[in-house]
Amino acid sequence: xxxxxxxxxxxxxxxxxxxxxxxxxxxxxxxxxxxxxxxxxxxxxxxxxxxxxxxxxxxxxxxxxxxxxxxxxxxxxxxxxxxxxxxxxxxxxxxxxxxxxxxxxxxxxxxxxxxxxxxxxxxxxxxxxxxxxxxxxxxxxxxxxxxxxxxxxxxxxxxxxxxxxxxxxxxxxxxxxxxxxxxxxxxxxxxxxxxxxxxxxxxxxxxxxxxxxxxxxxxxxxxxxxxxxxxxxxxxxxxxxxxxxxxxxxxxxxxxxxxxxxxxxxxxxxxxxxxxxxxxxxxxxxxxxxxxxxxxxxxxxxxxxxxxxxxxxxxxxxxxxxx
Length: 323
Fold this sequence. Notes:
By secondary structure, this protein is an alpha/beta fold. 39% of the residues lie in helices and 19% in strands.
């Protein structure tokens, strides 16, 4: 499957209804443990969101709900597992930006993106460039000067190939006209840990790292948004500092596409109810996520726009290597 075939899926997803598979498993939902697959390592925002919602879902369904971290291969390992799971609602995917970027950036995928149905767009988060608190870089200008003076010397970590931190790093390098070294990890947790340890110079991540910023383990030097973030009002945007970079991350739930429509509706409704519960909502919002609204159809349309936007960047000459 080439990247334009995959992009075609993304464009069609917003207008074509999800097909209900006749071979879907029969029986009431849920009848056993429900697994939420997070295609990243533990410790990142995707993992945290899923674990905040799991207890509320378990209460609603009367069944255990577990979070299974299956990181690696730029989220393809975990995503493939859900794409090939029984379409009965008992295996869900909670993922982020790589779901739309992988079909655009990779020559082949081990799964068909159309085999996964969007259920709920949880929200979007603001990315910041976070440098190691032990590094000598205290301002964005210092980071840029270093990147320009020593091509490839600036090492920026990411949660994996095709992830939003990876794309943000590539766009940053393009915006400042410099070569950087991208270091992919199996999730945000390991990448941030290595930045704090000084293994890498920095990473693009969100306000879920506020405790590490406050403790001096991470130093924010720029916000990739139109306006400063309310939780970190002292951190200027990239545009304020002369760099045209606005880019964020999204998060959402998916199910195998042949999952019966009544089950999809039930899961969507229960996800919304769980997200409205203050016990789950508070830590997710505190992490910096701006909660989204809209239906499954709206989510599919959003995915289409994100894929087209990235394809436009690639077609314009942005170099984002993942293979």
